[in-house]
Amino acid sequence: MELIGNIVTIIGLAVMLTGVVGLYKFKDFYLRLLVLAKIDTVGAITFMIGIIIRHGFSSFSLKVLLIMVLFIILNPLTAHILARAAYQSIEGITEEQYIEGYDDGHGGK
Amino acid sequence: MIYVLLVFWVTSAILAIQARKLVRLIVYLAIFSTISAICFFVLGAPDVAMAEVAVSSFSTVFMIVCFEKYFTLVTEVTPDPPKEKIFLMRFRKLVLPIAFTGLLAVLFVYFIPEGAASTYLRDLYLSRFMFEVGGENAVTSIYLGYRVYDTLFEALMLLISVVGVAHMSWRNESEITDEQFAGVTKSDAVDVYTIRIICPAMLIFGVYLILNGHISPGGGFQGGVAVASFFICRYLIHNVYDVRFGKIMIFEKMTFAAIVVLAAVFIFFGFYVQFPQFRTAYMILMNLLIAMKVSFGFIIIFYRYIAFERR
After folding, report:
1. Which positions in chain A touch B185 (Cβ < 8 Å)?
2. What is the DSSP secondary-structure string of B130-174?
3. How confident is the model over B258-276, as a mean pLDDT?
4. Per the CB < 8 Å rule, is A77 touching B185?
5. Cβ distance B233 to B202 under 8 Å?
């Protein structure tokens, strides 16, 4: 059980590592945001699943599960808010990033 | 050894006050905080020394950047000096700071006391806090019992920063009206539905932190921030501005006064020793008041930035 848990934890850490490399590699804001969301959701959730498998069925893993639920709810929300705010700020978008029919925050659709 | 350091300390402080140029003032301030960090370390408080070093280095860099930006705006660019002068300037810019840093490093190594720092106070607090202050959380009994002065001044610091945010903003109004608020962008459907799921949990967590501060980790400051985040979530859901600004500021000041009065009555008049059965009540009440103050302050700062400090 402990071995499986360790392997899953290491997979989560590897995902986080690729995400960090991507943060330095990409220069565009939206690509960076994509990578950031990957670190926050995929990496962290895999990491926590590994910890739960390691510790088995206990009150500790229940707490970790609660944190995981919060992560699943909140991290996509933060990524969404960041992307939307960047889209709505005036210098945020280029011609090809413009989305037809999406609220730009200045009254135009 | 400590007396030599203290003499340097006072000298650098006087030099910083007497400096005519802003750059010199910044440099003297940096020297001052470095020496004070060394003093903290020598006196056996390495954690405070680390905090001092971090804060002072950050603030020095920040002030120098601000200074440069400000003065490039004001004055014109000076022409390039001749070659010999460039060498001299490089000497002054490069060699002198390195020499100064090396000197400080030598001082630091020389003044390190023998052995580890003393743990006398920590042992004292940990062995006696249950009888003397009560409560099962040592941190709470320290900041509400032994170090209540620190707590008062920390609350005062937050109050001053809130007053600063409220009074030194770009616009000079004291109340936010609906037409100022009209330009603020509204929340998305995704935001609203997700935050609706989360925000009751936030409120419950904040209240739990406040009311259990004397038993488990937590306390007034953290719980106050959690409760304030609940109010921020409320704004994000409804997108309405219905906060009476001046009233909240008055409430904040009143809660600060209540904190001061409560701490003074309980700690300084010696009620703590006379009535040990009220200690838990004192802790809960104090945590509650601190949490109210902190959450009022953060609500003020948040709404201020939402309504005024935007393009």
Report:
1. 88, 105
2. HHHT-SS-HHHHIIIIITHHHHHHHHHHHHHHHHHHHHSSSS--S
3. 82
4. no
5. yes
CA atoms within 13 A on the CB side of B5: 19
**Cβ pair B52, B33 in contact under 8 A:** yes
- DSSP-assigned letter for residue B276: G
Give the per-residue pLDDT at B144.
81
Question: For residue B124, how far is the Cα from the chain centroid?
Answer: 27
Inter-chain CB proximity A84 and B198 less than 8 Å: no
Any idea where the domains of chain A sit in the sequence? Answer: 2-89
**Distance, CA of B141 to CA of B137 (rounded, Å):** 6
> Can you tell me the ipTM of this complex?
0.71
Q: How many CB pairs under 8 A join A and B?
A: 20
CA angle (B44 as vertex; B141, B30 as ends), nearest 5: 105
Put simply, the answer to whether A74 touches B194 (Cβ < 8 Å) is yes
Nearest to A48 by CA among A33, A36, A62: A62
Nearest to A73 among B185, B188, B194 (CB): B194
User: Would you state the pLDDT for residue A105?
Assistant: 56
Which residue in A80, A78, A70 sits closest to A44, CA to CA?
A: A70
- The verdict on pTM exceeding 0.80 is no
| A80 contacts B197? CB cut-off 8 A | no
